[in-house]
Amino acid sequence: MAASILIIGANGRMGQHLIYAAARETNKPTIHAFVRNPASLPPPVASVCDSVQRGNALEAEDVRAALVESSATHIIVAIGVPNSTARSTLRADSAKAITEAIERSEQPVKVVVVSSMGAGGTKIKFGFGIGSLTHFILRHVLDDHDHQEERFLSFFENDKDKLLIVRPTELTEGRAGAKVTLFDGDKRTPSMKVDRGDVATWIAGQVCRDGECFGRAVNITRA
């Protein structure tokens, strides 16, 4: 049976790449965008979706309603504040609402969380202290990612195979087409950057082709 994918944060750059990546999959999943304001989703992106669900990712009832309406088998969480390093609890608060929604819906669903390299105890390791400096600059963002991951890990503690956490290195735009690689987050980081489009393609493959990485937290970058 083809996947039914609810993409939370669909109007963001990663969310839009995920919509296009899912649409390219040969087994044709149904794609549902979840956004606060449907008008914020560019028409070419909306036209690829089977539905656009209106709702606030911080409201569990909104997410539950979208889950039921879309009959989602998978949720991809791509929430963030673009280009901001300020302190925020957006990811953690939305994780709380999303897990409450799943619990209320009693609907079996797998979840992919787009997190960040440097979260969950991983380290950004480059020479000349670049990794340490990057981690310091992103400390508030990574703290929010940490709490987001912790919420999902706790919720899926007894169903670990239903959760996939993806931690990309620094995301770039307009450079898609490269291979990606998974790597050990305790060792030297192979590449500092990876394109959103390439990460989205990898995630869509995991969702639509029963990928082997569910049940794990993986670190991903340009090969």
TrEMBL record:
Name of this chain's protein: NAD(P)-binding domain-containing protein
A GO term for molecular function: biliverdin reductase [NAD(P)H] activity
Pfam families: NAD_binding_10 (PF13460)
Organism the protein comes from: Gracilariopsis chorda
UniProt domain NAD(P)-binding: residue ranges: 9-206
Domain of life: Eukaryota
InterPro entries the record matches: NAD(P)-bd_dom (IPR016040), NAD(P)-bd_dom_sf (IPR036291), Polyketide_Oxido-like (IPR051606)
